[in-house]
Amino acid sequence: MNYTQWVFSFSVCVLQQPMRAKHCQLCQHCVRRYDHHCPWLENCVGERNHPLFIVYLSVQLVVLLWGGQVTWSGLYFGQSWELLKHNIFLLVSFLLILIFTIVVLLLLISHLYLISCNTTTWEFMSHHRISYLRHSELENPFDQGIILNLWRFFCSRQLTAWEKIYFHRNSEPV
C-alpha cells in the first residue's frame, strides 16, 4: 500500500482523515491518534489528551488506595456479631473500593503497556479492520522502542506526522 492508496476522503466529516485518526460516533469529532471514548469523562481520549488521561487514572488510583486504607483502618476485628453489625458499612465500602481499585489498576497497566508499544486501544482491538495495520508488513509500524515511545508520549507535545513514520518503517528492507 502506498501513500496515494492510503489517503481517502473522510465521509462523515468530509475531511481528509489523518493516519491513526477516527471519527467518534458519540461526540461527533475526528480525533487524532484516537484511543477510545471514555464514558466516565464523556470525552474522547486521543493524541492531545491521552497523557492527561493517564494522570487522571493515576490520581484516581491514589485516591482509591487512600480511601481503602482509611476504610480498612476503621474496621474492628473481633469474634462478636455486634462488631460485625457495626462494621458492615465499612466492610461493604472496603470491598467496593477494592473492586474499583483493581479495575483502575488494570486499566492503568493496560494503557501503559499500549503506550510502551505506541499503539492505541482502538488499534489493538480493531487491528484486523484498520487498513494501514492490516496491510502493513510490520506487526506495529509505529513502534519505535519502549524508551522512545514513552518519551514521545509523556515528554513531546508536538503533533506527530504518523504517515512519515508509517511509510518510512514499511519501506525498510527486512
Automatic annotation (TrEMBL):
Entry membrane topology: Multi-pass membrane protein
A Pfam match: DHHC
InterPro entries in alphabetical order: Palmitoyltrfase_DHHC, PFA4/ZDH16/20/ERF2-like
Keywords linked to the UniProt accession: Acyltransferase, Lipoprotein, Membrane, Palmitate, Transferase, Transmembrane, Transmembrane helix
GO CC terms in record: endoplasmic reticulum; Golgi apparatus
Transmembrane intervals: 53-77, 89-114
Main location, first listed in the record: membrane
Catalysed transformations (reactions): L-cysteinyl-[protein] + hexadecanoyl-CoA = S-hexadecanoyl-L-cysteinyl-[protein] + CoA
GO molecular function term, any single one: protein-cysteine S-palmitoyltransferase activity
Residue span, Palmitoyltransferase DHHC domain: 12-127
UniProt GO BP: protein targeting to membrane
Matching PROSITE patterns: DHHC (PS50216)
UniProt keyword Transmembrane helix present: yes
Enzyme Commission numbers on file: 2.3.1.225
Annotated localization: Endomembrane system
Domain statement: The DHHC domain is required for palmitoyltransferase activity.
Membership in a protein family: Belongs to the DHHC palmitoyltransferase family.
Name recorded for this polypeptide: Palmitoyltransferase
Organism: Malurus cyaneus samueli
